[in-house]
Amino acid sequence: MGPYPAQAQPKEAKLWGGRFEEGVTDVVERFTESISFDKQLYKQDIMGSRAHATMLAHQGLITVSDRDSILQGLDEIERRIENGEFNWRADREDVHMNIEAALTDLIGEPAKKLHTARSRNDQVLTDFRLWCRDAIDKILVSMKQLQVSLITLALNNEGLIVPGYTHLQRAQPVLLQHLLLAYVEEIERDAGRLVDCRARMNFCPLGACALAGTGLPIDRFMTSEALGFTAPLRNSIDAVSDRDFVLEFLSANAITAVHLSRLGEEWVLWASEEFGFITPSDSVSTGSSIMPQKKNPDPMELVRGKSARVIGDLVTLLTLCKGLPHAYNRDLQVAKE
Ligand code: ARG
């Protein structure tokens, strides 16, 4: 029987398991879980649930007292997660079921009403869009910092003439600041692509439910607004099918990574004995005991090296999506990794 116990512990019934007589095997559970990576979406998941519960009560679909118990319960769960007191369970598959089941353990019956007019399919997209939106905001700040550093470097070296290259042959003399400001322009366009992507991504999937929406009188504009989205997505099948917002995000990141990789390559060349334009300071270099003449520009080599992963992420997601029929398919879980 290998590492799996012949007599499994009695298992908790799955949220979707009403009609099922048997649970899944441990190996299937481990193979299909996403909690090991999607727990990173906990904040967005809780935000989405707060907005959804508030809307359900406003529409008279749950009582105000159920709403209050749900909101208090979610606060407590968020506190436990942030204090490292939350028990993430692989048998509860993903972040959505972990939080919802924990809420049921905590407050009982009212928690079960939170899933009214909602499916994990529209929930996962809501979390994912919110997460990518936050990630873009953080990356934009880093890009601005990099631009400021490059401009500072240009100002500190005003008037310094360096060889400009074409075909990696010395071509014409240029000012160092001219080249440094070329990097700044590239990053400006990279940031622009993220800003465009953010605007296109910022629409709310909630209410799409599994794929066909719901007959219940929900208010999709209310949840969309509460979560800072521009508007609800128009088509529910589109809302739960597509990951083009992630593809766009990864495309923009891949282009940025290529820009950074070229910058890295250039500085690695400059640090070589042959070019000798820069000597990286000790604080950003490594050496060798057997070849004491060496000073290796490792961080810039790794800027170049790590760009491969960013490009790889884009290729992975393109490949993941290309053969999928509409609407949700479990393959899409992998997109979050
Ligand atoms: N764990 C799943 C994922 O991350 C959640 C969505 C599951 N939906 C479903 N119909 N099984 O993609």
From TrEMBL:
One of its GO terms (biological process) is L-arginine biosynthetic process via ornithine. CDD domains: Argininosuccinate_lyase. This is Fumarate lyase N-terminal domain-containing protein. Residues 18-312 form the Fumarate lyase N-terminal domain. Belongs to the lyase 1 family. Argininosuccinate lyase subfamily. Pfam families: Lyase_1 (PF00206). It comes from the Eukaryota. GO terms for molecular function: argininosuccinate lyase activity. PANTHER family: ARGININOSUCCINATE LYASE.
